[in-house]
Amino acid sequence: MREKIYESAFNAIADTPGEALNMKLRASLMRSIIDITETRGWSQSEAASEFGVTEPRMSELQHGKLSRFSLDDLVNMLSRLGDQCEVTISVSLK
């Protein structure tokens, strides 16, 4: 029996490459939001207020509940800080 090797855990659990990419992007944005929260020393309550969400919603984010957040949700949270969000696209030449 051959083992299948995946580029990432997201590729292993996603049904399509597009779904895997969406998960990777959401995970990256969530990590950025958590990093901002930690760098600024915000409590969960302060972070929730700054990002315009409830404390339970902030808790879901901090606990990595990826399925609870869309790309739009995460970009909107970041935009409340006036921060820039940039996407880089890499094209493979196959």
Q: Which helices and strands occur, and which strands form pairs?
A:
Layout: H1 9-13, H2 17-39, H3 44-51, H4 55-62, H5 71-79
Helix pairs in contact: 2-5, 3-4
Walk me through the structure.
It is a single chain. The two termini are 28 Å apart. With 94 residues, the chain is an all-alpha fold. Helix 2 runs parallel beside helix 5 and helix 3 packs across helix 4. The radius of gyration is 16 Å and the shape is elongated. The longest helix is centred in the N-terminal third of the chain and has 23 residues. The protein has a domain of 56 residues.
Poorly predicted sequence stretches spanning 5 or more consecutive residues: none
Distance between the termini: 28 Å
Number of strands: 0
- What sequence of helices (H) and strands (E) makes up the elements? HHHHH
Shape: elongated
Oligomer: single chain
Question: Short summary of the structure?
Answer:
With 94 residues, the chain is an all-alpha fold. It is 56% helix and 0% strand.
Can you give keywords for this protein?
single chain, 94 residues, mainly alpha, 56% helix, elongated
